[in-house]
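Support case: user asked for a sample of complex input and structure output to validate their parser. Sending the pair below.
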Amino acid sequence: MYYCVNSCAVVGVNAMPVQVEVDVSEGLPQMSMVGSLGQEVREAKERVFAALKNIGLDVPAMHITVNLSPADLRKEGTAFDLPIAIGMFVSMSYIPNINLHEMMFLGEIGLNGEIKSVRGALPMVRLAKQQGIKHCFLPAENAKEGAVIEGIQVYGIHHLTELILFFQMEEKSREEVLKPEKVNVLELFQQGREAYKDDFSQVRGQTVAKRASLIAAAGFHNLLMLGPPGAGKSMIAKRIPGILPPLTLEESLEVTSVYSVAGLTKNQNLLVNRPFQSPHHTISTTALTGGGIRPRPGAISLAHRGVLFLDELPEFSKNALEAMRQPLENKTIQVARVGGVVEYPADFMLVCAMNPCPCGYFPNRNKCKCTEPQIKRYLSKISGPILDRIDLCVELKEVEIEHLQRKEENDTTSSMLQNKVEIARQIQTERFRNTEYRFNSDIQAKDMDEFCYLGKVERLCIQKMYQSLNLSARSYHRIIKVARTIADLEESKEIQEKHLLEAGLYRPGEVLA
Amino acid sequence: MEKRNFYCWLCSLSELSDRQRIGLSEAYESFEDLLQDVQQSYKDILGKKGAWFEGIATKLRIDRQYYTQAIQTQDRLTESGILFCHKHEEIFPERLQNIPDPPLGFFYKGSLMREPGAVAVIGARECSCYGQAMAKALGEALGQRKIAVVSGMARGIDGIAQAAAMAAGGTSYGVLGCGVDICYPGSNRRIYENLIQNGAVLSTYPPGTQPKAINFPPRNRIVSGLADVVVVVEAGRKSGTLITVDMALEQGKEVWVVPGRMDDRLSMGCNRLISQGAQILWDIPEFVEQIETKLFPEGIKQRGKVWHREGEAMPWNREEDTGRKRQIMQKLEYTPVTVEEIWNRMGNTVSVGELQIALMELLLEGKVVQPATGYFCKNR
C-alpha cells in the first residue's frame, strides 16, 4: 500500500513543500529511504523504529520504502520523523484511513515516542496554508508559533500515542484529546509592548545623544556613538528599538520567520517587538552575516527590522565589518554554498559605539595620553565604506553625579519619542510614494535635488559649511539627508537653515572622515 | 675653502661628538694637515675612537677615490640643496656661537637671516586645546613683530607655534633630530616646506640620519642655543621639554613659562618651573614688549607700538555677538567640552537643538573650534 504525507523543508527563510511517500509491501523485511537525504534525515529510520517499538507497536516483517519528494531537493533537518511515522501507521493500518491531503505533519521523534521541536515552524505553517491544508500537526513547543497563521488549525502534540489516540477517535470527539491552538494576535502585540521595559526616560542626561537617536530612528539613519566606557552607549542603543514605529503584523511574521528558522522561538508565539542584536566583537564573519555549511541566519538577519548594535566597533574583525557592506546596501544577504544560494532578509538599523581613542578620554588631555598616531591608527580600523553608511555621529560624555541623582520629572519617554518618529515616518511614506525609497537615509545622490530641495539661503548655508568645515562630497550629502529628517521631525515642508546647521553637528569628525 | 670642506667632512662623520669635532678642527686646518700628521695627535682628542679614526686617515691616504669623495662632501650636499655652515663663518648664528660647547657646524635647508631677536617656543607633542591656542597666539604675535621662532618642528606645540609665526609673516627655524633631508614627523610636511621658504630647517646630524629617539634630546641644546629667550607653553611633570629648559639655563638664556591650572596634567611641568623662578608669561603683548626692550633697547620706538594694552589686550578677547552666542562664548574655555556640558553650564535655558544651531553658527564664524566630534572649545 502506498500513502503520501504532506510535510515541508526550509530553504532560507521560506518553506518548500515535501511529500513523504511510504510504501509497505511484501518482500525482504527492511526499510529503505530515498530522495536526496541528509545524514539526520537518514537517521530518522532508527528513531522511528525504536519509537514504534517503545510505544508498544509491532513493525510487521515487510519491505518498507520511504521516498521524500521532490527527490532532487536536498532534505535536511529532523522534521521528517513524524510524517514518516504517520505514513507507516497508516500503511500498517494502526490508524484508520484519514484524509492525509488536508493535513501536514512536522516533528522530531525521540526514542520513547516523544515529539521534539523543529526549526522553521512559522514559515512551514504559512506554506501549509498557501497549499490549502486545513490541519497542521506540530511539536507542542512550536504550536504557539504556528498558530499565529489564521485559517488553519494547528495542533501541538507531545507524544506519538496522543496522535494515534486522536485519529482513532470519532471525528466529533477528537477535540477531547487535542484542541487546536488558538492565538489572539492583537492581545499578543498588546502584551509584548507592555512587557517592553526599556525606556528612554531611564537614561539620565545625554540629551544630545537622545536627540541623535530620535533623528536616527525617524529617518532610519545608521548611528555611531563615540564616548568613554560607561557613558551609556549600550543603554541608549538598547532603547532605540523602542522608539522605532511598532512592528506591523506582516513585519512581525517576517521577523519571527527568521528567528524560527534559526531555532530561537521556543514557546513563543510571535516576536512583537523590534529585535535588538548586540553581538560580541569577537563574532566571526559567518555568525554575523549568516552562513555555515548548512546556512543559518546571522546576527544581521536576526536584527531584521530592528537594531544591530556593534559595541567597540574597531575591535570587530575587518572581514566581518566589510561583509556588512552589501547587506547595508541591498537590505538582504545572499549566502552561496555548494548546495545552492539562500537569501536572508537583513534590513536593519546599524548602531555602533566606540571610544574616541584607545584609552577613551580624547580630547581630554588631562586623562588621555594617547599620541596622535595611536589615535589615528585606532580610528583607521573602521573602513571608509562602512563609515560612508553612517549618517549620524554623536559624542557622549561620562554621566555626572548630579544627573544620576536628579529626579527628572517629565523627562522624554520612549512613547513620546515614538510618536514623533511615527509622524516623520508618515511624511516620508507620503514623499516616497511610487518610488523605491522608504526612508530619507535611502536617498541616492542623484535624487537629492528632487527630495531635498534647498532654498537660496539654505544653499548659501551649506556652501559655507562645505568650505569652512572642509566637507567631502559624501558628508555634504549626508548632512542634507539628516537635515531632511530633522525637518520632517518638525513637520517642516522645506529644509531650513537651522536644520542644516544642526545636521552639520552630527557629521563624523575630521579624524574619522 | 679648504677649511670649510674639511669641517663639512668632519660634521658628516656621525660617529664623532660635537666636542671631538671641535678638537679635530682646532688641531688641523685641512685634509693636508691631517694627512701630514705623523704624530697622530688625534688619538689624544678622540680617546677610544682613535683607532677607528686612524683607519679613516689611512684610508684617506691610500684610497684615492675615498679621498676625492671626502673633499667633495660639501659639493655633493650643495647639489641636493643642503647647505653647510661652520662656527668660524660670518653667517653662523651669533647666539649659538656663545653657548658652551657650540657645534662645529650644522647642515641646513633654507636661509639663515639675522633677525634681531629669536624666541624658542617649546612644549608637549600631545598638547591640549589650551596649549594649541596659546602656541598659536604666541607664534602669531612673534611673527608679526618679526622675531624669529625657533623650535623642534615636532607635533603639537612646536609645529603650531612655528606655523603660526610663518603665517603671520615672520621667520622660523626648525631644529631637527634627523638629517635635514628627512621630514619627521611626516604629518608636518607642510611646515617643513614652509620653513625652507621662510627660515630654515637645520640639524647637526649628517643628512640621511634617521629620526632615532636618542637623537632628539641633544638637538634641544641647539634649539635653546639659537634663541635669546625660551618659552615653555605646555609641559607635563616629566616632559622632554624640561631638558630644553635645563639646557637653556646652562646657556644663560631667559626662560618664560605659560602658566596653567593646578590640576592640568600638561601644565604641571610649567607651574613647577614657575615655582622654581621662571618668568610668568601672563600676557603676550607684555611679554613681547619686555623682550623687545631687552633685546634692542635703542630701537623700540622705531619698531612701532605693541598692541593697546587696555580692553582688547589679548587678541582673542574680541567683541562677541550679543544675546545667545555671547552667552555661549562666556561658557566656553580652551578645554574642549561636549554640547551636553555647555547645555548644562547654560542652566538648560535653551533647547539642545537651539544650542547646537548657535554652536554651528559660531563654528562657521570661526569663533569656536571642534577638536573632536561633539566637542567644542574657544578659538582664539
